[in-house]
TrEMBL record, chains A, B:
Keywords for this protein: Hydrolase, Metal-binding, Zinc
GO terms for MF: hydrolase activity, acting on carbon-nitrogen (but not peptide) bonds, in linear amidines; metal ion binding; N-carbamoyl-L-amino-acid hydrolase activity
Organism: Frischella perrara
Pfam families assigned: M20_dimer, Peptidase_M20
EC number: 3.5.1.87
Annotated Zn(2+) 1 binding sites: H85, D96, H192
Record's protein name: Amidase, hydantoinase/carbamoylase family
Family to which this protein belongs: Belongs to the peptidase M20 family.
InterPro entries with a match to the protein in the record: Amidase_Cbmase, Bact_exopeptidase_dim_dom, Peptidase_M20, Peptidase_M20_dimer
Record note on cofactor: Binds 2 Zn(2+) ions per subunit.
Keyword Hydrolase: yes
């Protein structure tokens, strides 16, 4: 923090809260296992509510367990929302999600400390089941709040033990009766760890998030001929594994082309048949996860990808089948919200970059019903969904201060 | 067959015998499942013995179920052996192994037909468990006969149902008492289908087999870092699957270099971890099966292979571990035996090539105790270990005629 003028968040209190929540579901390697709607999720919810009650905030819980903690404004104007999720991956990190919740809570407490009034109310939300690890799909609470998923459908979704979302909500006592859907929202700002390596590698403390990548997922199957590894000369084969290797190298080359503009392209899953040491493979299967902000580029890359892979298959005398199995459009966050983040960063003199989220977040759903943006802070080595997930005190403080100033801009500081 | 002078084998009888044996363990797609020491293997043994008895040959069975069918020579000289195996892969082909047995039997019957006497006795052998599908390792009967495997060790080997080799031998009644090991052997000639595509693609009918490839097998493990597919730019990854793809492409390029002299190099087995669509893989594993006749080249290729793969891993910031898990020297067959095959081919005017076996055969073991060579005939599209395995009448006849003339050279035609 350089040349900061008051108010500023209380980093000691924020770090203490992060440490207290990290005890709830703590793993032996310093991460957390806090799957949604479990006993430990309930404990995290209880602690959040306890702190918020003490501070005098108004607490509402909707019928999907989303928790809304409101600090009133001077006027009855549309609310400025912030927050994130409290659940984690199995053996996940202690910052993913909960950082955004507690940075928001710290902002509300700081406003109390400094007796700052805002024109608009500010509402902190802890969304139910962002991770989707126990109940798929992910980002469920925000999907229901933004009416992209029917609550009756979601209630019936079961975990691997056959327990439904509704049963789990009832068991931890978090099916609320407050109707929050439909309230006027002025803006939404979610703070989150980056979950990638870009900020740290560029020595930047804040990511001003301008949107989220569109995604196209593919499944590719190559078919050749199973032959004896000893008796078949290498130039007489129809080797499906070799074809797959050429495809993966070509896809990487495509992704690294300057014209591909930092597309995220991943082959993460591979299988082969018969998958035997001394048999030339007759079948190879792999997946492609391709993400970019630019819809036109994504469409163009799909054309290039299909053309390149088909040409490789032809050259190696293989059959190829390319199926697109998922297509999600890119999300463009709201220019005024982004600008509020920019101003908050400038005020605080933090090194920053504008960036696009490669991962999905609750803010992506919220952007469909309200002006939205996000604030990223770095995480060490970009590690996330990992017990080793870590942040520095400096990043922790910077993210919460930027959130504070952004919310003050959007909720309009009415004076102290 | 062009300009052939008598004697020649009876192609109708040979094809009839091949057809009769193909009924034993026949599969619905025209192949056979005749695993070693099963009821159907017993039936094939019984039929072989029945035909041989009728023809007046002397039958011996050793304590591993290897069957020796002897046609006496004019003198008590070292024996000239031929034959192959009667067992098959599960859902295997109707020619793999049994062709060499029945071509040998047809030669003995032809010698009877033409009243030809040889100076040396000729002995047809059907070796037990060449495939190794039911009881590993493969080529077991010839390994025991050549004293490369202890019989007491082999007896104890069990199939997946817990039945031992000894129990299986007893059950089908083929533990013999004849001691054949140690008898003087002048030469061994095994006829076999090529199990590869080279002869057919070159319009050649006979392969004069000069040896068998040496083999080196490797296991390679690449280790990177698991990262989020959406948040990690492609140029900031340590992607183990990408590393594997580059390795497989480089290995193929190495195999196709003219200086690599038609090395057989196969990546047949691949796995990755976590093998998830939207996670950059932190681990990839693959196998390499590398075969060549030239021991120096094989050693040199191992050096090149290690250097190339290590360099790829370094460039992509991955750890690499390369383990050699198998090393078998090449086998050089006996020049006089090879020359006998050459002369027989020349006499018959068949299109031929000298070639090295990429697969292991009983003849490989026998070559360690006696002068040995092999005769290959083509199989359609090189398919083998496959129910579609097929040969033409022309090839079938050619192989048996070459075997006849080779055995006549080696056993020394004493006149008719």
């Amino acid at each position: 923090m350089k040349n900061r003028t008051l108010p500023q968040i209380n980093i000691n209190r924020l770090e203490q809260m992060l440490s207290d929540f990290a005890q709830i579901g703590k793993t032996d390697k310093g991460g957390v296992t806090r799957l949604t709607l479990t006993k430990v999720d309930q404990q995290a919810r209880d602690l959040l509510i306890s702190i918020s009650k003490t501070a005098g905030f108004k607490i509402r819980i909707d019928n999907f367990g989303n928790i809304f903690i409101r600090r009133n404004g001077l006027e009855d104007l549309p609310v400025v929302m912030t927050g994130s999720h409290g659940d984690s991956q199995p053996r996940g990190g202690r910052y993913d999600g909960i950082y955004g919740v507690l940075a928001g809570l710290e902002v509300l407490l700081t406003l109390n400390d400094f007796n700052i009034q805002t024109r608009h109310p500010i509402e902190l939300v802890m969304w139910t089941n962002e991770e989707g690890s126990r109940f798929a799909p992910a980002m469920m609470g925000s999907a229901i709040f933004t009416e992209q998923l029917e609550i009756e459908t979601a209630y019936k979704i079961k975990d691997k033990d056959g327990i439904s979302v509704k049963e789990a909500l009832e068991k931890i006592g978090y099916i609320g009766t407050d109707k929050v859907i439909g309230q006027p929202i002025k803006a939404v700002i979610e703070a989150h760890i980056e979950q990638g390596p870009i900020l740290e590698l560029n020595n930047q403390t804040i990511g001003i998030v301008t949107g989220a990548f569109g995604q196209r997922w593919f499944e590719v199957k190559l078919t050749g001929l199973a032959m004896h590894a000893g008796t078949t000369p290498v130039n007489m084969r129809q080797d499906a594994i070799l074809g797959m290797a050429h495809c993966i190298v070509a896809l990487n080359r495509l992704a690294l082309k300057p014209s591909s503009n930092d597309v995220r392209l991943t082959v993460g899953m591979i299988t082969a048949s018969p998958n035997s040491r001394n048999v030339v493979a007759d079948e190879a299967f792999f997946t492609i996860d391709m993400r970019h902000y630019d819809a036109d580029l994504l469409a163009d890359l799909e054309i290039q990808l299909r053309s390149e892979l088909t040409s490789i298959a032809d050259q190696l005398n293989l059959n190829i089948n390319i199926q697109r199995v998922l297509s999600m459009p890119a999300i463009h966050f709201d220019e005024q919200c982004i600008d509020a983040v920019r101003k908050a960063v400038t005020k605080n003199h933090y090194a920053s970059r504008e960036m696009i989220s490669g991962a999905g977040h609750d803010a992506c759903h919220l952007s469909t019903i309200a002006p939205t943006s996000m604030i990223f802070i770095p995480c060490i080595k970009g590690l996330s969904h990992n017990e080793s997930e870590a942040i520095t005190t400096e990043w922790c403080q910077a993210g919460a201060n930027v959130l504070l100033d952004t919310l003050l801009i959007l909720a309009e500081n009415g004076g102290d």
